[in-house]
Amino acid sequence: MLEWLFGLILLGIILFLIFSRIRFRIPGLSPISLFLAVLIFIAATILFNVIWGDITDLVRPKGTPYYYRRTEEFFSLKVNELLAHTFYVIPLLIIAVILYATLEKKGIKYRVVTFPYFAAAGIMIIRLVFDIGFFAIERFEKAGIYGVLIFVLVVLSILIFYIQRKWEGRKKEETTL
After folding, report:
1. Do 35 and 20 contact (CB within 8 A), yes or no?
2. Residue burial 129-166, b: 16+ Cβ < 10 Å; e: rest
3. Which of 27, 118, 148, 157 would staple 133 via disulfide (CB 3.0–4.6 Å)?
4. Is the Cβ–Cβ distance between 58 and 84 less than 8 Å?
5. What pLDDT shows up at residue 66?
6. Where are the alpha helices (DSSP H) in 60-107?
7. Burial level of 73, CB count in 10 A (0-12/13-18/19+)?
8. pLDDT tens-digit map of 99-155
């Protein structure tokens, strides 16, 4: 638990430094509210991870050693665990996206409050994707590796197109000013 806490605090400090650079681009954002937003992000991430662990404890039978591998019983337990985590993370992400999308246009004060929850939910969806990927690799071996690599290629390609489109839009805005 201490390793996670230390890592999250370090991540929070890094995000604070990054956001403090962004602050100069966003008028009306105070450094204190930015710092508090980072604390909200850290607290939400810890809370979401604790709930994740509690869900794991609910799904896994008592006294089940986690690190016995390559048995059908393990794979069925892992599928149940992944399904429970999916039913937790997907609604969490949907609520965070709806909250962020509805309050984002109302101004910076709402955006600063809602973004940490959105980012923490994003971390949970990334954790779920990694868990599913590791399970696919372990369960299906070579086919799992191919599936995970194809998924990574598709996601990274879409991400590059999205980032490039945003970048070109900003460059056009800068040239028109």
Report:
1. no
2. eebbbebbbeeeeeebeeebeeeeeeeeeeeeeeeeee
3. 148
4. yes
5. 59
6. 72-104
7. exposed
8. 888 887 787 778 888 888 888 888 888 888 888 888 888 878 778 788 888 888 888
Tokens of 69: 């591998």
- Residue ranges of alpha helices (H) inside 24-71 are 31-59
Q: Which residue type is seen at 163?
A: I
- What are the pLDDT digits (tens) for 44-71? 988 998 999 899 888 887 766 655 566 7
The upper half-sphere exposure of residue 82, i.e. CA atoms within 13 Å in the direction of its Cβ, equals 16
CB atoms within 10 A of CB 68: 10
